[in-house]
């Protein structure tokens, strides 16, 4: 039998593109295939008005079913971590192991910053810039941090306009309206309805991040995921980007 595949789920405003090089490293280190997915309303995936954890978990199950994959190691960062946790609670037999990257199954604050990012990207969209450079300059008036701006800009794509004069136009691959409408839902975690996932679970947290704290969140995680190990790395929220080698080692050891 072939090795159980790994499924990687990105965070809010992310895409499988952010995981491209790390997925290759992970595949080589763990000796299996890695499927980095675009969640709904992100990347190349379809836009839909509904954006919540039960639907995203169902999307992932649909992806596995369509490929005849019975089980996978489910790895998710941030919003993707909550999708992964909800997936494990809902489809435990399809979850070989669960890895949540800097996310716990509770309530997060910090919506105002993300609200601001959505408004900033919507302003860029509505200004209809012709080039990526113009889009970046427009975004810079709202988002001063170049690293954050570079990350948000990965969602901008030049496409050839259908009909018309054929000049390419910039589109944002995110469904900004749906994400704005569902942001409050994304900071919550769905009611587990008494379910637990007893399979092997790993939380990889950033010690400088406010999202995860082993002392503060230990009991919360154990209640739903009793078989949990913790690895804290000296990073902020973007653990896999800030400490890629240590991140891959942690998963390799865990699997």
Automatic annotation (TrEMBL):
Domain of life from the UniProt record: Eukaryota
GO terms assigned for molecular function: carboxylic ester hydrolase activity
Keyword terms of this UniProt record: Hydrolase
Domain AB hydrolase-1 as annotated: residue spans: 5-243
Entries under InterPro entries matching the protein: AB_hydrolase_1 (IPR000073), AB_hydrolase_fold (IPR029058), Epox_hydrolase-like (IPR000639)
GO (cellular component) term, any one: mitochondrion
Database matches in Pfam families: Abhydrolase_1 (PF00561)
Family that this chain belongs to: Belongs to the AB hydrolase superfamily.
Name of the protein: AB hydrolase-1 domain-containing protein
């Amino acid at each position: 039998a072939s090795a159980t595949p790994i499924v990687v789920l990105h965070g809010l405003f992310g895409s499988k593109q952010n995981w491209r090089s790390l997925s290759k490293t992970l595949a080589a280190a763990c000796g299996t295939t890695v499927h980095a997915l675009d969640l709904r309303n992100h990347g190349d995936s379809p836009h839909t008005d509904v954006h919540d954890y039960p639907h995203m978990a169902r999307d992932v199950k649909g992806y596995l079913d369509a490929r005849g994959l019975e089980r996978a190691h489910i790895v998710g960062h941030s919003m993707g971590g909550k999708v992964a946790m909800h997936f494990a609670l809902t489809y435990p037999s399809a979850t070989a192991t669960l890895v949540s990257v800097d996310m716990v199954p509770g309530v997060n604050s910090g919506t105002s910053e993300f609200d601001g990012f959505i408004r900033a990207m919507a302003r860029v969209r509505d200004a209809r810039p012709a080039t990526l450079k113009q889009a970046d300059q427009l975004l810079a008036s709202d988002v001063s941090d170049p690293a954050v701006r570079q990350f948000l800009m990965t969602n901008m794509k030049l496409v050839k306009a259908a009909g018309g004069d054929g000049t390419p136009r910039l589109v944002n691959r995110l469904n900004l309206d749906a994400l704005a409408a569902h942001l409050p839902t994304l900071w919550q975690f769905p009611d587990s309805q008494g379910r637990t996932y007893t399979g092997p679970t790993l939380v990889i947290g950033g010690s400088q991040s406010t999202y995860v704290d082993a002392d503060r969140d230990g009991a919360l995680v154990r209640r739903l995921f009793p078989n949990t190990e913790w690895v804290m790395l000296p990073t902020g929220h973007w653990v896999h980007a800030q400490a890629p080698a240590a991140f891959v080692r942690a998963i390799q050891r865990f699997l």
